[in-house]
Design brief:
Blueprint: H1 4-10, E1 13-16, E2 24-27, H2 31-40, H3 56-67, E3 76-80, H4 86-93, E4 98-103, H5 106-118, E5 124-127, E6 139-143, H6 149-164, E7 168-173, E8 184-193, E9 203-211
Parallel strand pairs: 3-4, 3-6, 4-5, 6-7
Antiparallel strand pairs: 1-2, 7-9, 8-9
Helix pairs in contact: 1-5, 3-4
Length: 214
């Protein structure tokens, strides 16, 4: 896809995030339609357009960061599997020294750039799989990452390396199937409005967890 930014802007509408209305995101109004357009607009295989929606875990984590800015103030923050960049934008608004948003989808990096600009904050968007690398941040934030067994296993290995190195790791999760059963400390819970066609309900009970060292 040659014009990723144009695609993002053409198929979304800039609107407030339900649980975090102080943040604007380019959000898709029709979930299935965006899925189909993403597939037909590219010659190669594209990841699902997670960047086009404010997922429950990201909303909860963004709300928590904005309400507890000391978590990120003057610290280097990584938003992992960033999607739209919602959590990264919250960290930037809360006073992080620097914020990097990482995702494997090139459309995600375009969405992050558009959304950061719309909220007048600075976020560095990186298209790369970093899960086998050495974690390099003072705070790692991740929303909705436990949606498959393989991803959950890789994420937890990365998180444990980070925690053992002294990095704070927080995740937002609405009860995904592969949320680890142990090694978590509950920080907060929210009732999060979500896109009903993507989830099994219009509201998802969502928890912000801190990852503990094993």
């Amino acid at each position: 896809m040659t014009d990723s930014l144009g695609f993002v802007q053409a198929h979304t509408r800039l609107s407030p995030v339900p649980l975090v209305p102080e943040i604007l995101l380019h959000q898709a109004e029709e979930a299935i339609a965006l899925w189909e357009r993403t597939e037909t607009s590219s010659s190669g295989q594209q990841p699902p357009p997670f960047w086009g929606f404010a997922w429950a875990g990201g909303q909860a984590l963004a709300r928590y960061v904005l309400d507890n800015p000391s978590l990120v103030t003057a610290r280097r923050v990584l938003d992992l599997a960033a999607g739209s960049g919602l959590v990264a934008i919250a960290a930037a608004k809360a006073g992080a020294a620097s914020v990097t948003a990482v995702d494997i989808d090139p459309l995600s990096t375009a969405a992050v750039a558009a959304n950061a600009s719309a909220n007048t904050v600075t976020v560095t968007a990186v298209e790369r799989d970093v899960l086998d690398e050495r974690p390099d941040a003072e705070v790692i934030l991740a929303g909705d990452v436990f949606y498959s067994r393989e991803m959950a296993t890789r994420m937890m290995a990365y998180f444990q390396r980070a925690v053992r190195a002294g990095t704070a790791v927080l995740v937002g999760d609405p009860g995904r199937a592969y949320l680890p059963p142990a090694g978590l400390r509950k920080l907060a819970s929210y009732e999060v409005p979500v896109v009903a066609t993507l989830e099994d309900a219009a509201i998802k009970h969502t928890t912000v967890w801190e990852i503990l060292a094993k």
